Amino acid sequence: MKIILPCLLIFLLQYSYCVDPQKKSYDLTDNEDHIFVVKLLFEKLTELLNKTTILDECLTTLNRSVAIMEENLNRFTERINEGGDRINDMKSRMQDLEYRINSINSRFVPINALSSRMQDFENRINSINSRFGSLDEQIKANKIQINQRMDEYLRSLIIPDSA
Known about the structure:
Blueprint: H1 4-16, H2 31-162
Helix pairs in contact: 1-2
Signal peptide: 1-18
Keywords: Coiled coil, Signal
Coiled coil: 59-131
């Protein structure tokens, strides 16, 4: 409505009077000059209104874009903060895991000592078994020799009886 009324007035003034655009100065007491000046003012005001309307639309569009950008930046900031929280959670979990690993490793120290003692004990048992093995072989050899001697002794006893 603001735009229509000045445009209509300018249109009417333009067609009702013939204006000389070559004039440099105007006498406002003269009706024709006065009307031309008013008409010129309305034209300039209309141009200004059109430009301000366009500027207003551009600013509105710009404000919308800025609002969208702010919203996107807020979302991005939230995501960064969530990522930071996740990183902090991971750090605390890693510290917990490191503590658990250190605890388990400290439990393995006595187990490793026990394992080395078990290995020493196993080595001693193997040494004893190897000694027993050689003694067992000697006992078997001695048993065979004793059996052979007893057989010879029995034969020697049996042979004189039959003579």
